[in-house]
Amino acid sequence: MVLITGATGNLGSSVIDQLLKITAPDKFVALARNEEKASSLKIKGVEVRMGNFDDPASLETAFAGIEKLVLISTMEQNRFEQHKNVVDAALKTDIKHIVYTGLGIRDIQTSHVKDLMIDHFQTEDYIKEKGLTYTFLRNTMYADAIPLIAGEKIVEQGIFLPGGDGKVPYALRREMGEATANLLFQDGHENKTYDITGSNVYSYHDIANGLQAITGKEIQYINADADAFHDILKEAGVPDFPIYLLSGTVADIKNHQYEIKSDILEKLLGRPTAPLNEFLKEVYQLK
């Protein structure tokens, strides 16, 4: 029996949607902390167990009878503590195998968002330390996140970011969810670490050109000065944490931290990932 955490979130929902296509709903269960949000899963015939990463007792109850657990990483400030609670509960309930969705980056030690993202690697180390069988899925940046970083109004305003000529092997969140579901009932993924990346890498120049080809409008990418970009955000009243996350992420892109090449996602999907113009149409809801 497989359990998927974060079942009502974006990635968790994608995993479950694919599982419903490839296996019976009695082969897996979903973990959620909000019963109302989980109601749609119950309608689909999925068993939902309630649990909260900050409540170890609830996790132990939810994990009863589970053999393999998909730990979808959280975005909370105490993420590592939450993940430790999950791993500890897994040990107490005799779960054999954890599939963990972490971060695909070249060198976390030199990342500009190290303080926030290093807990992905701490989680991996903790799972190994406890002797559990593991599969680590180091996910690249979601194509779905492009509007959050480059802006919702690229078509009207262009791209103004200090991203240099750095590139990212973007993939859609739904593609990663599909791939994660596919490997759950396959053999040979035990104690493996996979970089989950798109088939091609794209820069902000490429994104601007792609949107220009789709819309027929002139769209520019301005490679901004990092300090000026920071000051603009500060003057606009953006809080410190979003500035840190946005500026640091874009700095990592500029420094080629995400330029990792792997064919694992293609193999798990059985096809290449969506090309640039296709995923841009999807994330910007363009025809």
Walk me through this protein's architecture.
This protein has 287 residues and is an alpha/beta fold. The chain has a domain at 2-144 and 171-197 and 261-273: NAD(P)-binding Rossmann-like Domain (Rossmann fold, 3-Layer(aba) Sandwich), CATH 3.40.50. Helix content is 44%, strand content 15%. The chain contains 13 helices and 9 strands. The protein has helices at residues 10-22, 39-43, 56-62, 79-92, 114-129, 146-150, 154-157, 173-184, 204-215, 226-235, 240-254, 264-269, 276-283, and strands spanning 2-4, 28-32, 47-50, 68-72, 97-103, 133-139, 159-161, 192-196, 221-223. The strands form 2 sheets. Strands 3-2-1-4-5-6-8 form a 7-stranded parallel β-sheet, sandwiched between helices. Strands 7-9 form a two-stranded parallel sheet. Strand 1, helix 1 and strand 2 (28-32) form a beta-alpha-beta unit.
Number of helices: 13
Query: Percent of residues in beta strands?
Result: 5-15%
Oligomer: single chain
Q: What is the overall silhouette?
A: globular
CATH class of the domain at 2-144 and 171-197 and 261-273: Alpha Beta
**CATH topology (level 3) name of the domain at 2-144 and 171-197 and 261-273:** Rossmann fold
GO molecular function: NAD(P)H dehydrogenase (quinone) activity
EC number: 1.6.5.2
Keywords: Oxidoreductase
InterPro entries: NAD(P)-bd_dom_sf, NmrA-like, NmrA-type_oxidoreductase
